Amino acid sequence: MRYFIEFSYNGSAYFGYQIQPKQISVQEELEKALSTILREPIKTTGAGRTDTGVHAKKMFAHFETNQLLPENLIYKLNSFLSEHIAIKRIFKVDDDMHARFSATYRTYEYYISLEKNPFSKDSSWQYWRQETLNINLMNEACKILFEYDDFTSFAKLHADNKTNICKIYKAEWEQLGNQLRFTISADRFLRNMVRAIVGTMVEIGTGKIASQDLRRIIEEKYRNSAGVSAPAQGLFLVDVGYDF
């Protein structure tokens, strides 16, 4: 039987979601907890992978087992796991449902703090000593993203992507007091794509890059044409969509 598990995590304590040698990851912690409680080896497949320091407000993974799950499994998992990971729900799905490949869209949010804030240093880009950001210019640039589907210029160099084609559904900046929030949704994302877009948008917001130059950056299909990647701690995976 295949089960989906919905959970969230604070990525500041982990070297990303995906298991990797000699580094602590969210996937490793999750599989260890499931295997211990269910008393059998459990492997999970996540909806995607997040980089070191990136957070998830809503993440999904699937796993398989032939045993009936205990009613208090969520409670047991939350008791076993560290305070950085929270299990929300676990539910049975059809055998062909896949946490990664069945996802129809993903949504990320990126936060920039415009003031020095010790309470958000692990959850936003602290931008308080730098140039003023023009959110109107940044939103003008967002409209240009909808004109394209090849985002090679924002892809991590030497990544193992089979294609750099993505369909962006939403991209916008909002000001929330002394904080900026960038929301972006797409059918899929390339590794480092959101952080590279944010870094480029910030350069547009400060006037270092003209908003219209974003077309040239995208069309060159060259990572070095775009801005530097924004810091990881401001990025959150906030939603993954499925046709349940």
UniProtKB/TrEMBL annotation:
Record GO biological process: tRNA pseudouridine synthesis
UniProt-listed NCBIfam families: hisT_truA
EC number: 5.4.99.12
Main EC class the enzyme belongs to: isomerase
Gene assigned in the entry: truA
Reactions performed catalytically: uridine(38/39/40) in tRNA = pseudouridine(38/39/40) in tRNA
Summary of subunit composition and partner proteins: Homodimer.
Keyword presence, Nuclease: no
Keyword set, alphabetical order: Isomerase, tRNA processing
Membership in a protein family: Belongs to the tRNA pseudouridine synthase TruA family.
Annotated Pseudouridine synthase I TruA alpha/beta domain residues: 8-101, 149-243
GO molecular function: RNA binding; tRNA pseudouridine(38-40) synthase activity
Highest classification ranks of the organism: Bacteria, Pseudomonadati, Bacteroidota, Flavobacteriia, Flavobacteriales
Keyword tRNA processing: yes
Residues annotated as catalytic: D51 (nucleophile)
Residues binding substrate: Y108
Function field: Formation of pseudouridine at positions 38, 39 and 40 in the anticodon stem and loop of transfer RNAs.
Protein name: tRNA pseudouridine synthase A
Annotated source species: Epilithonimonas bovis DSM 19482
